[in-house]
Amino acid sequence: MVDCGExxxxxxxxxxxxAQKIKNIFISHLHGDHYLGxxxxxxxxxxMGRKTPLKLYGPKGLMEIITLQLxxxxxxxxxxxxxxxxxxxxHQCIHEDPQVEVYTIPLDHRIPxxxxxxxxKPKKFRIxxxxxxxxxxxxxxxxxxxxxxxxxxxxxxxxxxxFYTKPPRKSFSxxxxxxxxYNESIIPIIQGSDMLYHESTFLDEHMDRASNTYHSTxxxxxxxxxxxxxxxxxxxxxxxxxxxxxxxxxxARSVFENAHIAEEGKEFILHD
Amino acid sequence: MVDCGExxxxxxxxxxxxAQKIKNIFISHLHGDHYLGxxxxxxxxxxMGRKTPLKLYGPKGLMEIITLQLxxxxxxxxxxxxxxxxxxxxHQCIHEDPQVEVYTIPLDHRIPxxxxxxxxKPKKFRIxxxxxxxxxxxxxxxxxxxxxxxxxxxxxxxxxxxFYTKPPRKSFSxxxxxxxxYNESIIPIIQGSDMLYHESTFLDEHMDRASNTYHSTxxxxxxxxxxxxxxxxxxxxxxxxxxxxxxxxxxARSVFENAHIAEEGKEFILHD
Lengths: 272, 272
Hints:
By secondary structure, chain A is of the alpha/beta class. Helix content of chain A is 26%, strand content 22%. Chain A has three domains: 1-85; 90-122 and 170-264, 4-Layer Sandwich (Metallo-beta-lactamase, Chain A), CATH 3.60.15; 126-166, no CATH class.
């Protein structure tokens, strides 16, 4: 989960997502709309009997706030939280598991704020079952999945992986840039990402307001997307002054065609 | 406002209630379902430009939690909060304004917890306009509204308030007892209240569970209502284990007839 505003639990329920399946939570910064739902979510996980440890990533202060609230509610969670305090000034890998690496993206906001870059690791070669000899040893299947040929005792190729496997599926990357001013220093970090979420609080006509409040306009978000040559751009975090969102999308598309409003509940799927 | 769980802002919106009209917020205790919506509400009031001071009443720790969150979001609210820390062990008057007095009700919960008794002050006598002489001085009208006769220079009755006014409307009282075990010591405090909200987390068949978690059963809530001779009883805070709520209401009604489920969004109106 990335950021956790108030009433996130209601949204999880609405979209039939199970809180207990969440293993990692990444919080970009400590403005309320990005983390005020966290304490309630952690409590619910506790009340529902969670035992599975949770990894939590966020800026300085997040764990202090949670700890204080647990103290006054006299609660000892029945699962462990491993908290990683993010240095919001540097780009670094903060999380790694068998599928994904997560990197920070230093953003330029009114308070310390970090985006997150999710990079899928290279995937396994895909076995072509019809071609596979029967009862092949698991070690040989593993070798093929890793893109290696299987050799016989004489060091000759016994199974050529090009015949027994198809190349791995593409590994995708997703960059999440929550609240930030227009900031070109993120471009090398997110370069070539398949999908970029970039805040787009204002229209370009309110550029002064955007700059003063450390936010971006739709055109600025699209400019970052274009310069970083990403696959597609999702726009969000719109000022409540805009009743209609089409103008924000249109403004972005005038710079970067594959731009979309990140509508609540809408799924954007990355695929080959 | 009394207690402020997560997503209270959404509920205010749903029922067309204006956050900016709230002048006083009373928090009974620091379990999440009673206060996690407060920080977001305070932030929204700020972002909407509130200048009107707010009075906040709650147990030790509440202001510390808010202050810490304001610190990390680097926010200085543009309105003042006057915080009154509640002593949850003693029954005392914590708030008074021209209409209402508010008293604490010490409750017996797992952490420090206080209910609130709202007592309307005596109301003014109601002027009978048809009987009133034209162009009567305001001071004389005020005297009549206070239930006083207006005297002439000789100390004789010029205007008998019984002719010019009707008696005041009844002053109502409402007792709110959030999370508590069955606790007879609250009875003298809430004695004769027109309306009592009392938690009713469990059915009597789960009385052990109620006692262990410092909660009450529907029968216990009704017993308190009966012994305190209140006008009507509202039941709430039901365990999620109960899909149907009628059995809770029925159990309460077997002890105290005028008992009702405090359904979300339902209005209960006190009137003569």
